[in-house]
Amino acid sequence: MSEHDDPDVLREFRERRRKLPHRDSPGKMYFVTSSTDPGFGPRLCDEETARIVYDCLLYDNGRRYALDSFVIMPSHFHVLLLPMPREGGFVPLAEIMQTVKSVTAHRLNKLLGRHGPVWLEESYDRCVRNSRDYLSKWWYIRRNPVRAG
What we know:
Blueprint: H1 7-19, E1 30-35, H2 47-59, E2 65-73, E3 76-83, E4 85-86, E5 89-90, H3 93-112, E6 124-127, H4 131-148
Antiparallel strand pairs: 1-3, 1-6, 2-3, 4-5
């Protein structure tokens, strides 16, 4: 077994990566993906559960961020958003995602009569670098349901 296959090494790497500082890029758009926890599963395909995520994403649009586009898939969602300015800078992306994930987790667990994590702790986020990158992410969001079948 190589060092790359050692589960302890992988666990340690993930833990270290999680503790790395996340740097916001003020005034930049982000492409973010949040996935459901394996224990929650692909339950966002139901209209009622997807609506909770949909409503939550729209709620702070224009207040804390400008929502460009998003798609809700059975086990994850993708979103393009621009954090809004506020006194002292911009709304931090980590704060935006923490709110979305916390509010939706509470509502989804209540709806489904369950307890436990809904979302993976880490979301994948990437700062959109230029118009070409933006179009690539925008089309990815548009085509994701088609590719998934």
